[in-house]
Amino acid sequence: MGKKVKKESETPCKETFEPLPVEGKTPATVVLLLSCPEEDILVKACEAIHTFAEKGDENKVSLLGLGALEPLCQLITHNNKLIRRNAFMALGIMATNGDIKSALKKIDVIPSIIDKLSLEEDIVVHDFATLCLASLSVDFACKVKISDNNGLPPLIQLLSSPDPDVKKNSLEIIFNLVQDHQSRLALHELGGIPPLLELLKSDFPVIQHLALKTLQNVTTDTDTCNTFREEQGFEKLMDILSNMDFHDLHAEALQVVANCLSDSKSLQVIHKGGGLTRLMEFVLTPNLPEIQSNAVKCIARVAQSSENRKLLHEQNVEKVLVELLSVADISVKTATCQAVSIMSFHLASKDSFRDLNGIPAVVQLLNNESLKLKEAATQALSNLTHGNQLNAFAAYEAGGDKILVQQLYGSCRRTVANSADALGNMAGQEVIRCSILSHGAIQALVEPLQSTDTQVLINTTLCLTVLACDTEARAELQSAGGLHPLVNLLRSYHKEVLHHACLAINVCASDVNAAVEMCQFGALEMLQEINLSVNRRSRFSELAMISLLNFNLSVKYSLTSHLASTDIISDGFYDAGKVRYVLLKLMCNRGHLKECELIYKYKKKLLKNKKDDKQKNETRAESPTEKPWKMMDDVSLQLLVNEAKKTILPLSDEREQCAALARLVSEAMGGAVEMEKLHEFPWVLHLSELKFQLQSNVVPIGLISRGIYCHRALLFKCLADCIGMSCTLERGEYSQAWNEVLLFNGNPSMNERSSQPYRYIVDLMHQPGSLGVKSTIFLYEM
């Protein structure tokens, strides 16, 4: 047999090519090579992509479009260290681009990157792996993924890397992570504070800045702050602050100091170690304005706690702050005023600022053109004068009242609110109040009353409440048009605004003219609505309502159907029935109301206004020839007053006085009427005849000789008030009304008097002079 010849294609080839140089002139070619199994080619391809990507964002985006991202993410886990290193270099550079960061978020690459952060890995891998994570860690979802994949421990280890870039990148990632509370706690538990403090010694400012910014975040936690203190962190920060070569770090260092001192226990420990003294010395050391301003802000932050304020007071912080009020820089002055404002919550500090002449210094700052400084200075004066009359007087002596009034016209709402509050604090003293008013404070407060800012409204109404206790001030407020915006505040649903508006109205209502005008603006109706609301009513709204009613008992009786024994009928009283408040002249001329009773102080007139049919009244109201209504003399009423004084006052027994007055009223109003014959009593016809005779629906009550319950009760109240006998006036339904009196049981001449008075209703209609217990008295319903 012949020898078989094996086909060439079936013979395995043991030979290999000599290494071939591969040249890729286009990015697309190089990206294709990333899928090559040849390790040498992969090394060169990754290196070429890194070099190409370094040249700019346009190249990075081009590589993204060519599909370079996914193969690179696979190659960072390659067994070949050189391939792995070059792949990380390419990926790290590309990840700095925003489009590529967005694409990487869709690829689950973070676990692979974290896996290569071990200390055994090449330092170049650390560099570009952390660079990649630094770019991704600004995104919230990526931060969560880094934390979930236990990325924090290796990052803390890399803070001690010999490579500054690795330190910087790792620190940047950690800074982004500790924005989250859980990561801050984790950093402390994993021992991250000591390496952070060590980085403060770095020769690279960027690392120092990042370390301070990270410490600023983590020291907000109490346990972390304790560890920071135990690791001599405060001393290291003070060393930085004491070294002017590190002035660029001072602002951030002060933020960390403020965190450490905010905790009272830490402050105590630091104080015992001389830390507070060093801080005070640093604050007073001439420095860049920004640094000095931040130092004062640090003190202000520390002073947020009452315990800390006490300790700062013991360190004479007030002296330091008063000195800083005279520096040239506005930002330092502003920060100082803010610190003074906060320290003023400590009572002893208020006195210290006054004793150190700090108040005149603050007042002078109000003349500065800086709006921020004015705001801070007015806030300081507001707090300094709150509850402290001596400080208020010191501000007055420095001319503060005049300047504060001027600030009410300012454009800054906070300044206006602070100024109003300070003026309100000062106005409690009469001499200061007079001075404030002389500078036009009332006029200046009118515009703030129309503000939309809640605090402005609260402080303005509070200031107005204090100033309006002066009679001239109330008149000025009315003439300046301030009552209308004040009444409009009753529409507010803000609790404090409403409360303070009610207080101001309560004070203004002591002036009759002001009260009338507020009623015309609808104050009574609004207060009625407020007092019917479960959510809006308060003792302040009730007080305002009572004050408005007390200025005019006619309105009070009209709205409440009740006059207390302390409500003495006097000049201008009338009964308008249960209706909206309208001026008497309008009622008489236009017939707006069904009934009206009037008592005039000097001529003692009591009138009854009975409304005719609607059409007749409308015709009269529109008639241009109608004569104006004039009040008529009520001689009969005056005779009754004289008779009561003559015959009833001499009686010694209260019961006898009450019975005698009841009989006098009954006789004047037609005598006793039996209950069964009440319907025959011609009081309606009698009133109609009087109106016809007088050609007016206003009838003097002295002319009424046939009066029903409401007429008799009103006459009884009028006469009782004239002779000093105590009684109430109550209105019921229809034409019902009655009087209640408080009487003691027993014989006073024999010392047989009960300890508690009893309330009785006086019968004026059926058995005049008899008294009935309120719960058993029977009133006939018309």
TrEMBL record:
This is Armadillo repeat containing 3. SUPFAM superfamilies: ARM repeat (SSF48371). Keywords: Repeat. PROSITE patterns: ARM_REPEAT. Residues 632-771 form the EDR1/CTR1/ARMC3-like peptidase-like domain. ARM repeats lie at residues 150-192, 191-233, 357-399, 440-482. It comes from the Eukaryota. It holds the Pfam family EDR1_CTR1_ARMC3_pept.
